[in-house]
Design goal:
This protein has one domain: Up-down Bundle (Four Helix Bundle (Hemerythrin (Met), subunit A)). Helices cover 78% and strands 0% of the residues. The protein is built from five helices and no strands.
Length: 143
């Protein structure tokens, strides 16, 4: 058993929903970066697998959205996830890099915007530990 894998597994299992979303966005981005490298190297199967992994993460993030919490926000985020999924499929079918670069940039923007949210939740948890219960967090963050 790899100690770093065990540490990461424990980290994920104990992470709050907001942190989990950031981790998923980061992992989706890393899969897109891998897919770009596999595309350049002509590794078709590995490219396809990396693209599908990123696609599945976006699908999970999309399914975790709850319209009753912030309807306009979740609607826009759902549309963005769907758009990125469409671009991933286009990149895979046409074997072109441009859609992958676009998705990587969009994910980077989401990660950049999500990081202050994670930091805010952690500061609030340290300041007000009684409200750190994940059931108190808006469901829009649930992953």
């Amino acid at each position: 058993m790899n100690p770093s894998t065990t540490y990461f597994d424990q980290f994920v299992l104990s992470a709050d929903p907001v942190t989990l979303v950031r981790l998923l966005l980061q992992k989706a981005s890393s899969y897109v970066v891998e897919a770009r490298g596999f595309l350049k190297a002509g590794e078709i199967a590995r490219r396809g697998a990396a693209i599908m992994n990123a696609y599945e993460i976006l699908l999970e993030l999309q399914s975790a959205l709850h319209d009753d919490q912030a309807p306009e926000f979740t609607s826009r985020l759902r549309a963005l996830y769907a758009y990125m999924q469409e671009r991933l499929i286009t990149a895979n079918l046409k074997q072109i890099e441009e859609p992958l670069a676009e998705v990587e940039k969009l994910l980077g923007t989401l990660i950049e915007g999500w990081t202050p949210t994670v930091q805010k939740v952690h500061v609030e948890a340290a300041t007000y530990p009684q409200i750190h219960d994940s059931s108190v967090l808006p469901q829009v963050y649930a992953a």
